TrEMBL record:
Protein name as annotated: Histidine kinase
Gene Ontology MF annotations: kinase activity
The keyword Membrane is annotated on this UniProt entry: yes
Signal peptide: none
Organism: Nonomuraea maheshkhaliensis
Keyword Transmembrane carried by entry: yes
Transmembrane annotation, as ranges: 12-36, 42-60, 72-90
Pfam families, per database record: HisKA_3
Gene3D superfamilies: 1.20.5.1930, Histidine kinase-like ATPase, C-terminal domain (3.30.565.10)
Domain of life of the source: Bacteria
Stored InterPro entries: HATPase_C_sf (IPR036890), Sensor_HK_TwoCompSys (IPR050482), Sig_transdc_His_kin_sub3_dim/P (IPR011712)
Keywords associated with the record: Kinase, Membrane, Transferase, Transmembrane, Transmembrane helix, Two-component regulatory system
Domain Signal transduction histidine kinase subgroup 3 dimerisation and phosphoacceptor, first and last residues per copy: 207-273
Length: 397
């Protein structure tokens, strides 16, 4: 499961907790009077339960639409409000009982709307719930409070009105912000993920530009010289065949050199590329949110080692970006008189990913074998992946 999906599920679970609490309070409100042997309101509770079930089902759809940011489901929110009024009015508008249905609606309806609209819905819900609590059949339906304290008061008394006003007022103030802040955190996570992807694409684009710039510097001059000498050879072919032959021989030499340099650039075998490659991969990893540590020897690497390790570093970091959800990557290069060693360690690799890393590592192993080197890639700890390349010194050729 990726980070964004995990954040979405966490936000969803937090929003659903309100509905779990709602059903717990409804259950207590229904069962508590039965335990006291004084319940005669089935004609109201049956339709209220049906309305509560429809309300819950509809609100789950509303929350999914809001989290997916398709659109604000105005019609569904209005229908859910009708179910909430039916359930609250018939069940008994106790804030710690059936009245919590209306509060759950308020928490869902205020997601992704302007603050001014939130204030209006808070006031409207408060007034509605307070009005429903004065209905004639509210006597003895004070839910959790009645079940725990045994206190029964007339719905028109000032004590009941004060209790309802205080409770509904507090809930109407705290429920919308608590839900909205979780959705806001979810939005921040999505934007951060998009920003991370944008930084990665930018770093990769910069790397392509760097490679194109290096390629131009490497063969651009030679190609320009080939064009000039070819044109000169054509002009001399009629007046000085010997000179024209010399120019064409020079063109042949320049062409072979340009082809050789081009192949070396494409294969990553340019010796001066190791430092540039390390700087490049460090920038790409950090842009992708991966902490990168590079440890190099104090002395210059022996001849022939830099181009081999440059390609290995490039392929290893490519696998880090493609096949893992790494948070760190350590690159270490060291050497002795007998051998040079490269290690690349990162976390966030599942075992199935470690078993299927494509053909890149195979190609790297073949390149190292061509200069008498070896390469091993394996899981070393829980979700940590290690690439270990060793080249014997001195390198032949």
């Amino acid at each position: 499961m990726d980070t964004i999906e995990q954040a979405r599920r966490t936000t969803w679970k937090v929003l659903v907790v309100n509905f779990v609490a709602m059903w717990v309070l409804i259950a207590i409100s229904v069962l508590a009077p039965l335990g006291a042997g004084r319940f005669d309101g089935w004609w109201r509770i049956g339709p209220a339960l049906v309305a509560a079930v429809c309300f819950t089902w509809l609100c789950t759809r509303i929350m999914r639409l809001i989290l997916d940011r398709r659109h604000y489901p105005t019609k569904q929110v209005a229908v859910a409000a009708v179910f909430a009024v039916i359930a609250t009015g018939l069940g008994g508008a106790d804030p710690f009982g059936w009245g919590f249905v209306a509060l759950c609606w308020l928490g869902v309806a205020t997601l992704e709307i302007p603050k001014s609209a939130v204030r209006l819905l808070q006031i409207g819900t408060f007034v509605l719930c307070l009005g429903l609590s004065t209905l004639p059949w509210q006597t003895g339906t004070l839910g959790v409070r009645a079940a725990l304290t045994g206190l029964h008061v007339e719905p028109a008394s000032w004590q009941t009105l004060a209790y309802h006003a205080l409770s509904f007022g507090v809930f109407c103030l705290i429920v919308p912000p608590s839900n909205r802040i979780w959705v806001w955190i979810w939005r921040l996570a999505v934007e951060a993920h998009r920003g991370r992807e944008a930084h990665t694409r930018l770093a990769l684009a910069e790397e392509r530009l760097r490679f194109a710039r290096d390629l131009h510097d490497l063969v651009g001059h030679q190609l320009s010289a080939i064009a000039v000498k070819t044109e000169l050879a054509v002009r001399l072919s009629d007046v000085d065949a010997g000179r024209a032959k010399e120019e064409m021989a020079e063109v042949n030499r320049l062409t072979r050199k340009a082809l050789k340099d081009l192949r070396e650039a494409v294969r990553g075998y340019r010796e001066l590329d190791l430092a540039a490659e390390l700087n490049s991969v460090k920038g790409v990893l950090e842009a992708a949110g991966v902490r990168c540590e590079v440890r190099l020897p104090y002395r210059d690497l022996p001849a022939g080692v830099a181009p081999v390790f440059a390609y290995a570093v490039r392929e290893a970091v490519t696998n880090v970006l493609k096949h893992s959800t790494a948070t760190f990557c350590d690159i270490t290069i060291r050497f002795t008189e007998q051998e040079a060693e490269l290690t690349v360690r990162n976390d966030g690799v599942a075992r199935r990913q470690a078993d299927d890393l494509g053909s890149g590592l195979t190609g790297m192993s073949e390149r190292l074998a061509a200069v008498g080197g070896t390469m091993k890639a394996r899981l070393v700890e829980d979700q940590e992946f290690l690439l270990h390349a060793v080249v014997s010194l001195p390198i032949d050729g």
